[in-house]
From TrEMBL:
Gene3D superfamilies: 2.40.50.100. One of its GO terms (cellular component) is glycine cleavage complex. It comes from Pedobacter cryophilus. NCBIfam families: gcvH, PRK01202.1. The gene is gcvH. The modification N6-lipoyllysine is found at K63. The glycine cleavage system is composed of four proteins: P, T, L and H. Binds 1 lipoyl cofactor covalently. This is Glycine cleavage system H protein. PROSITE patterns: BIOTINYL_LIPOYL, LIPOYL. It comes from the Bacteria.
């Protein structure tokens, strides 16, 4: 399993890649494996400020629907529109083309999240 060191992680299996005062958010490789084949991503919170730990959307797999939790408080700037036609990109490239939202944030907030090593320990990898 892949755990990119440049990312931060949450106990809810989301990742965040901070680039200045914006960040990309998605679900981890572990999470997408647990969910199975993803068939739909539903995020309708563009323009909204979402608090850390609050639900910003859902991801639907063949057998289940799972909430997506915001890793840090931020304003959702953009949803990955490519997921509408190709939700399976979350399975194929969870840390790349399968990102879910782009947010505006205070970059310092991400410092409190898990490192790759901490996340690996959390899931027992």
């Amino acid at each position: 399993m892949n755990f990119p060191a440049e990312l931060k992680y949450t106990k809810d299996h989301e990742w965040i890649r901070v680039e200045g005062d914006v960040a990309f958010v998605g679900i981890t490789e572990f999470a997408q494996r647990e969910l199975g084949d993803i068939v739909y991503v539903d995020i309708n919170t563009v323009g909204s400020e979402v608090a850390e730990g609050d639900v910003f959307g859902t991801v639907e797999a063949v057998k289940t629907v799972s909430d997506l939790f915001m890793p840090v408080t931020g304003t959702i700037l953009e949803v990955n529109a490519a997921l509408d036609a190709n939700p399976e990109m979350v399975n194929q490239s969870p840390y790349g083309d399968g990102w879910m939202v782009k947010i505006a944030l205070d970059p310092a907030l991400a410092e409190a999240l898990l490192s790759a090593d901490d996340y690996k320990a959390l899931i027992g990898a």
